[in-house]
Amino acid sequence: MQRRADNLKTLMGTARPDRARTDSLAARLPPLEASPEPPSWLVGAAALDEWERLAPMLTACKTLSASMTTALAHYCAAHGALVAIYQRGEEPRASLIAQVARLAGEFGCTPASASKITPPKADRRENPFAQFRRPL
After folding, report:
1. pLDDT in tens, 68-110
2. Cα(100)–Cα(109) distance, rounded to whole angstroms?
3. Is residue 55 classed exposed, middle or buried when 0-12, 13-18 and 19+ CB atoms within 10 A define those classes?
4. Closest Cα partner for 61 from 113, 110, 7?
5. How confident is the model at residue 28 (pLDDT cuts 50, 70, 90)?
6. Exposed e or buried b for every residue in 75-85, given b needs 16+ CB within 10 A?
7. Residues near 24 by Cβ (< 8 Å), separated by ≥ 6?
8. 120 vs 12, 27, 78, CA distance in Å?
9. 0.70 surpassed by pTM
10. Are 7 and 62 a contacting pair, CB within 8 Å?
11. What whole-number distance in Å separates Cα of residue 108 and Cα of residue 61?
12. Is the Cβ–Cβ distance between 84 and 44 less than 8 Å?
C-alpha cells in the first residue's frame, strides 16, 4: 500500500507528528504559496483551461510543490488532447482515457481519490463540563 504524503494527511486531519516522514522528498519540498504559471510548452485552449482551473485549487490546498508542476502539466496536456479528440467527434483510445484518469488520480481529481481526502477536523473545544470535575 502506498503511503500518503504528509501534506495530504494534514489536509485530511489525520497527520501525526510521530509518523511524519521527515526523510521523504515530499517532506523537504515546501508547497507553493502562489499558483504557478503554466509551462511555455503547454499549448491548446483545453489544456490551459485545465491548468488555470486546477493549479489554484491545488495551491490553496497546499498540495502542489514546484516538483509537481511538470506532472500537472502532463495531466493538463493529456486532458487537452482528450478534449480535442472529443471535439472532433472521434472516439479516443482507451489508453489515453486511462492515462488521463491515472494522472487525475495523482492530484485527487477522481471520485475514488477525492473520497480519500477529508477536510481537517475542527479544533477540539474545551470540555464544557470540566468545571464540574472533582480534583484527584
Report:
1. 899 999 999 999 999 999 999 999 999 999 999 999 988 888 8
2. 10
3. buried
4. 7
5. low
6. bbbbbbbbbee
7. 5, 6
8. 5, 19, 31
9. no
10. yes
11. 11
12. yes
